[in-house]
From TrEMBL:
Keywords: Kinase, Membrane, Transferase, Transmembrane, Transmembrane helix. It comes from the Bacteria. The chain crosses the membrane at residues 12-33, 45-65, 77-101, 121-142. It comes from Mesonia profundi. This is Histidine kinase. The keyword Transmembrane applies.
Length: 351
């Protein structure tokens, strides 16, 4: 359904039509009066041509073009166009003959000659109608393009808002999952009354501050993200003690690189959650490389022969977030081989 036109728009539209037909009137007077000095006669004769010209033009612009041409019913449009021009030609001839007689006070003996023959007058009317058709088609193409562009903007705005809502929902799903695992770690320390418990509480406090407040931002720096990854690793080192070996290799060119928060932490958390101590050690290897073109995050941990669930809430959420944040600009590979669980993530950085 097309939106209703307001009153100022209708006034402007009426003025445009008025100016157009005044211009057509002067065109007829020049076209028919070229070489004649009897301007009064030509002006009055033109008035007889205007109604049939206007009616024919509006039949095309308000009926035939929108109903048949724009709807791509080309055969019907061609057929009705022929009918319309036949009828318009007949009415035009009658108007011309009636004008010749009426302007002579119905005295057929001495009719003032006009400068153009009947076919030329019909050609003039045809030219005006064709001009109206062309202008109507141009107006339709312009309005369709503008409407399409407006719909695309509205669609993109709606899609962006939807994606933002999805991301916020995914973040809220991540928070309880992370908090549950972290509190379990502290709970174990408090039960054994370990001296490291206060340090763990402090680190967890920093992590919670990051999760609850900093992740509300659309972007955080790579340095800030990695700092909290290291805090999480420190918590796990306190829990595992000598049974944990973590190798963290960072090759960062721009620590201020902006990225979505909580991008790496779910993978790190998952490595400890599903990692297994083999030969007295849980080994976690993390490699992070960043440059102007690419961000590469790789993590592996020891695991047993049982199949690790790669569809858990943490992994599933991060996959969905990556699809929303970096569509067609990331490659995420998750695999399990020879007592190793591997996550390999590559992101193409925006230029």
């Amino acid at each position: 359904m097309k939106p209703k036109k307001n009153i100022p728009y209708r006034i402007v539209e009426a003025l445009v039509h008025l100016v157009f037909w005044v211009g057509i009137y002067f065109f007829f007077t020049y076209f028919l009066g070229y070489g004649s000095t009897n301007t009064t006669y030509i002006n009055r004769f033109t008035l007889f041509l205007m109604p049939v010209t206007m009616i024919t033009a509006y039949i095309f612009s308000h009926y035939l073009i929108p109903r048949y041409l724009i709807q791509k019913k080309y055969v019907w449009f061609s057929l009705y166009t022929v009918y319309a021009f036949i009828i318009a030609s007949y009415v035009s001839i009658q108007s011309i003959l009636y004008a010749l007689i009426f302007l002579q006070d119905f005295q057929t003996g001495e009719i003032t000659p006009i400068t153009k023959s009947l076919p030329f007058i019909l050609l003039g009317i045809l030219m005006v109608v064709l001009l109206v058709i062309v202008l109507q088609v141009i107006q339709y193409l312009y309005s369709s393009s503008a409407e399409k562009e407006q719909l695309e903007r509205k669609f993109l705005t709606t899609e962006l808002a939807f994606k933002k809502q999805q991301l916020e929902t995914l973040k809220m799903q991540i928070h309880p999952h992370f908090l549950f695992n972290s509190l379990n770690t502290i709970y174990g320390f408090t039960l054994s009354k370990r001296d490291e418990a206060p340090e763990m509480v402090l680190k967890l406090s920093n992590l919670l501050d990051y999760i609850l407040y900093q992740t509300q931002k659309e972007k955080v720096s790579l340095e800030e993200e990695l700092k909290h990854v290291e805090d999480y690793i420190a918590l796990e080192k306190l829990r595992f003690q000598d049974t944990l070996e973590v190798n963290l290799d960072k090759q960062i060119e721009n620590p201020n690189r902006q990225l979505s928060p909580m991008l790496f932490l779910p993978f790190v958390e998952n490595s400890f959650k599903h990692g297994k101590i083999i030969n007295g050690q849980l080994i976690v290897k993390i490699f992070i490389k960043e440059n102007a073109k690419k961000l590469h995050f790789y993590i592996e941990n020891t695991c047993d022969d049982s199949v690790v669930n790669t569809e858990g809430i943490g992994i599933k959420n991060i996959q969905e977030r990556l699809n929303l944040l970096y569509p067609e600009k990331h490659v995420l590979e998750i695999k399990q081989e020879e007592n190793r669980f591997i996550v390999d993530l590559k992101i193409v950085m925006p230029g």
